[in-house]
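A quick aside before the break. I want you to see a complete sequence-to-structure record at least once, exactly as it would be stored in a machine-readable document. Don't worry about memorizing anything.
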Amino acid sequence: MKKNIFLSLCLLLLFYVTSTKQAYSQQKDALSGERFRVIVLSDIGGSDPDDFQSMIHYCLYSDLFDTEGIIASAGDGRKENILAVIAEYEKDFPKLKTYADYPSPDELRSLTKQGVFGGAPGKGYREPTEASDWIIKCAHKNDERPLYLLAWGQLEDIGQALHDDPSILDKIRVYYIGGPNKKHGADGYNYIEENFPDLWIVESNSTYRGWFVGGDMSGGFDNEGFYKNHIKSHGILGNYFGNFIGGKIKMGDTPSVGFLLYGDPSDPEQDGWGGRYRRVTFRPKTVFEGHPTLADKVEVFAIMELVLKGPDIGPANDTPQFSMVVDGQEFEGYYYGNGVYKLRFCPKFVKEWSYTLKSKIPELDGKTGQFTSVAENSLAPNPKALKHANWWTDILDPEFKEGEHSGAKTVNAFRRQFLMDFAQRFDRCITPKEDVNNNGQQ
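That is the input. The structure line, written in tokens, reads:
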């Protein structure tokens, strides 16, 4: 009897191990061997140093991807900042390459491109850039796999590429870290949303925050302690990581990479390191013709478009004609012809907003307005909104919220897992693999 029970337990254990291995082997992610074509678009530089942290992370996992471009994108992105990270990667490369087929520093340099400086004008695009041309070239490669564009900043270079060659639409997939990037790149976002409704895109406005908000932070896995306890002095890149935010974990763009590392990138509604998302058929937008009041409402992360009448100053142009000062920040508006002026803004929080206009045009200068931003999905959809076939965004269900951040728990549920894996990657920067193997044999 005991022998039969023991045999049954062994068979049960064997079944569990086998089924677990089979389940993992069926994962269609980079950690299980799937190779993805990737272009990273980063607004690295400027006021937010977390892109440096995310770029270090990407370098340590670059053996798993077919990297086709690293772009300094719209906003503050500067090519020299990407090259600075690659220079540090080069110092650890001799050890890293003993573990896997990492791309050489020179290869990564050759793939680094400069995108548009600043943002787009009201129409949402400007002129072709080195980056937008490169996106088009890569998209047309003779490769059946989709090209994943990991957008860590604004979308202008992607929008420019789509404007210049709409035929790439079916060849690309976009994972977009929205939130503040959408706020500062509302015109570029609006152009893509209005003109390419069939684009395959994950729009992560708050889910991405699960990388550094919430989750299991015990045992030195808190944001402040992770660097000190797990990666400091782990090679050149380990120390370099500590130069940004004092080593405090933020890495707000890294969920885009995590999305490819663990989960099923072909299905954003499945669990993974980059979060889980809901499919949406439209994107919210509120248009105010004239100055709104607090009674006028806009959803959080929606586009608010302000349409004003003023003097006819000739044909439409891409020169800012006025700006809106709100919460200490300034956003530019443009002239669209026939006496029509427009400005777009994207609120990040539920609150009451007040603004003042600045302009050399007397009819606009000094004018004020107010509006109220309300929770997502709380207003009736615009009946004129375009229908989207392949658009996903944050899950709004309360059980997936981390504080005010919708969907963040779908990322931080994996915090221990993805940070432990990240720490093990830094271990590669300390000792070459052959030395590890030799020590193991002794």
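Two observations worth writing down. Residues 2-25 form the longest helix (24 residues). Residues 5-25 have pLDDT under 50 and may be disordered. We'll return to this after the break.
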